[in-house]
Amino acid sequence: MKISIVFCVLFLSFASFSQNLIGDLTGSYKVDLQATMPFFDKIALTESGELPEEVRDRIEKISLIIYNDSLSMYINEYTQTLPFTAQTSSKENGHCDLHLDMSEMTVPEEAQNMFLTVYLKQKNKLQIMSSLGPKEMDNYIWVKSD
User: Fold this and answer.
1) pLDDT band for position 36 (50/70/90)?
2) If one looks up domain 2-144 in CATH, what number appears?
3) What is the pTM of this model?
4) 30: part of which helix (H) or strand (E)?
5) Domain spans of the chain?
6) Cβ–Cβ under 8 Å, residues 41 and 51
């Protein structure tokens, strides 16, 4: 009986700690075009320091919603929701790591243990980087929109 009580207390403490890591970050985000502009310049996506209108329109429609236990990405009319468990970050300067639950998805074996590291930027801004190496979205700076 004592072991069951101790286990329940530890489990609830861990769940509460995980929510505290992500709790302040929950909400809707949009790509901060100005803060992300150096990346667009680097990949030669800009024309004289400006994004082409069709690229700007496409990026402005991307949104990210972070919940306590999952995140949803809206790109064009496609939505991807990924459940996660938040943990203290294993990366230098990382705020937290979001260990993704890929059990319901068909993904390559190396993606099974994938996680995302959240880095806090200026007020209401963050950057999310994949553990699987550089991806285009790693360079996006997200600004809270709600």
Assistant:
1) confident
2) 2.40.128.210
3) 0.79
4) strand 27-31
5) 2-144
6) no
Q: Is 136 exposed, middle or buried (0-12, 13-18, 19+ CB in 10 A)?
A: exposed
Residue 137 vs residues 59, 117, 125: alpha-carbon distances, Å: 11, 12, 15
Distance CA 32, CA 85 (A): 26
**Long-range contact pairs involving 112-119 (C-beta distance under 8 Å, separation at least 24):** 115/84, 116/84, 117/89, 117/90, 117/91, 118/22, 118/25, 118/89, 118/94, 119/93, 119/94, 119/95
What is the C-alpha to C-alpha distance for residues 75 and 72, in angstroms, rounded to an integer? 10
pLDDT of 28? 96
Stretch (H or E) spanning 136: none
